[in-house]
Amino acid sequence: MENLLKTLGLPFAWLLGGILRIRHRLFDAGWLPVYRPSLPVIAVGNLQVGGTGKTPMTEYLIRLLKDDFRTAVLSRGYKRRSKGFVVAGAGANARILGDEPFQLYRKFGHEIVVAVDENRARGIRLLQQQVKPQIVLLDDALQHRRVDAHLKILLTPFHRPFTADRLFPAGRLRDIKNRAYSVDLIIVTKTPPDADIRKKNRLKTDLAKYGKPVLFASMTYDTPRDAAGMEIPWQIWQKEPFILITGIADPQPLIAFLKSKNLSFKHLKFPDHYHYDKHSLENIRKQIHRSGAKRILTTEKDFVKLQEGFPAAAFVPIRFALESRDEELLKKMIYEQIKSPKSL
């Protein structure tokens, strides 16, 4: 059935591809305006719909830069209830900033600046005027062509690289594959620690045709934590049934990880960036009561939205890691841009 739906979606995918190619040509030819920031800007993004690890990658970059540079993160704040330019501060929440920016603010707010603006060019200008950062990280910004970043990082998952995908609705691509030629670096995320070396080499060869360095990154799950940041050992989760709540694009890696630990749980799956309103929270409470679950486990992105309704919930942190040689290459590329930004 799924294959049939994808086949039926091909004409719409071809139409979308034509529209996207026209749009990119208008930008490339200068018919549509492009803002070239005067300070170093790094854009992190993907060509697929969700599930590539943009937020863990952004967190990785924050840790890499925050001790040496005044770092700002600018996001559009997807599905937030506010409008315009907002700098995170006291009273910030997921409704004001969006779930992923609030997650970053909750974790790094005392060390960096987190802001949101649907107009990235305006957001960068206002950041320069108000907080004067030394570097700006743009989260989920490869499709935002009105800003030309100094360093563009494309993420694609190991288990489903963009080279093996199709445009929506025939697949999960939201932009044409040729956009990979315009980036500076391709990072293959969610690479299993025990990944078959032959598969890695084939994928690297396939991606090398775009003429960019190809790095591999793993994403592993740490011990669950509660609202106070205290660890809740896996042994406790093994003793008691629990509810897993996810509102992310691809929960399968997390589910597979939990099953590998022989854990017993019921999964409540919601759409990506789901807004948990009073009705959905009440429905979750009923499901918990029926299942007899003693605990709630969720993702960090969902936790910032569920914590108010379920203060005893816990989340599974994600750790993003590059191979040592790849990390050195990434550092070199970033620091070269900070020291002497290339002319765009």
Structure report:
This protein has 12 helices and 13 strands. It is globular and about 60 Å long. Helix 5 (99-108) crosses helix 11 (300-306). The longest helix has 19 residues, at 10-28. The mean pLDDT is 91. It is α/β, with parallel strands linked by helices and 344 residues long. Helix 11 links the parallel strand 11 and strand 12. The protein has 2 domains: 2-69 and 134-220 and 320-339, Rossmann fold (3-Layer(aba) Sandwich); 234-316, 3-Layer(aba) Sandwich (Rossmann fold), CATH 3.40.50.1970.
The CATH topology of the largest domain? Rossmann fold
| Secondary-structure-derived class | alpha/beta
Q: Could you describe the largest sheet, including whether it forms a barrel?
A: 9 strands, mixed
What is the overall shape?
Answer: globular
CATH class of the largest domain: Alpha Beta
Q: Would you count the extended β strands for me?
A: 13
Major β-sheet strand ordering: 3-4-2-5-1-6-7-8-13
List the quaternary state of the chains: single chain
The overall pLDDT, averaged over residues, is: 91
Low-confidence parts: none
How much helix, percentage-wise, in residues?
25-40%
Radius of gyration, whole Å: 20 Å
**Span from first to last CA?**
46 Å
* SS element count, helices: 12
- The ordered string of helix (H) and strand (E) elements is HHEHEEHHEHEEEHEHEHEHEHEEH
Please tell me the total number of domains. Answer: 2
Q: How much of the residues is beta strand, in percent? A: 15-25%
Known CATH architecture of the largest domain: 3-Layer(aba) Sandwich
